[in-house]
Amino acid sequence: MGGKPHNSSEFPPFTLTGLPGLETSQHWMFLLLGILYIVSIVGNDLTLFIIKEVQSLHQPMYYFLSLLSINDLGVSFSTLPTVLATFCFHLRKISFDSCMAQMFFIHLFSFMESGILLVMSFDRYVAICNPLRYATVLTDARVVHMGMAVIIRSFCMAFPLPFLLKRLPFCKANVLSHAYCLHPDLIRLPCGDITINNIFGQFIVISNFGLDSALILLSYVLILCSVLAIASREERLKTLNTCVSHMCAVLMFCVPMVGVSMAARYGRHAPQYVHTLLSLIYLFVPPMLNPVIYSIKTKEIQQRLCKILLGNKF
């Protein structure tokens, strides 16, 4: 497994991994992942199309939902090439630069999803706690600025990752644990000092996911306090119902992320396929379920979707 040390300028290739120990089920796994890809891509495309076509959905909440759908499409297309190659064609080699590019985009869209969920929670906070100021606080210009801030922040966090890895020598077999390139997986491979990589990785986790999660939690505490002040039980339930889709999206993003993190730190003796399955859930389930949840909970999207599926006979 050992080998001659590589300088990063030599661009050593990496070997992708499917499901260790379950090689005979690889085709079935690709069939399952293929279904998830189709649901995710078609579902998010339909969401974007419906929001564009339905005038009543041209408001901040659905602008943010459009950004979330675009982000989910980005996640799907970032992993699709290598997952297709690994599970379907058994092509496991990926060049150094291709791996760095894929890692950048996967983490970029992951950081963006956290930021989008944060601005969506702010939207719900303003809508429930300050409904009379909603239109003046969340203007179209401010929505654009918030979206751009999320994109720029995510880019600034993901951009240094490939360069921090390129400066290191690689001397191991360069076998990855997944069918795609992730930073926590890649920093196990260099022979050099990875202290800076670890510090920067912990910094972006805390400043991005940690801070966003804390602010989302704070927004829902404030929302709950506001809702409890409503006298009517029916009105309380009606108000909380407007947050259900967003709460589900937050849980679908956070729970798998925590599972992957906990498994990496405390489940090192677990079979490798457990780690692989957790990372697949983290990257595949939210893009698939987000459009499903929002189509179920949003009447306008639901009606337009029925019209599309039934050939405008609904």
UniProtKB/TrEMBL annotation:
Domain named G-protein coupled receptors family 1 profile: residues: 43-294
Protein purpose: Putative odorant or sperm cell receptor.
Gene Ontology molecular function: G protein-coupled receptor activity; olfactory receptor activity
Record keywords: Cell membrane, G-protein coupled receptor, Membrane, Olfaction, Receptor, Sensory transduction, Transducer, Transmembrane, Transmembrane helix
Membrane topology per record: Multi-pass membrane protein
Keyword Transmembrane assigned: yes
UniProt GO BP: cellular response to lipid
TM spans (from-to): 28-51, 63-84, 104-122, 143-165, 213-231, 243-267, 273-294
Highest rank taxon of the organism: Eukaryota
Pfam families in alphabetical order: 7tm_4 (PF13853)
Cell location: Cell membrane; Membrane
Entry's family note: Belongs to the G-protein coupled receptor 1 family.
Cited InterPro entries: GPCR_Rhodpsn (IPR000276), GPCR_Rhodpsn_7TM (IPR017452), Olfact_rcpt (IPR000725), OR51/52/56-like (IPR050402)
UniProt protein name: Olfactory receptor
Gene Ontology terms: cellular component: plasma membrane
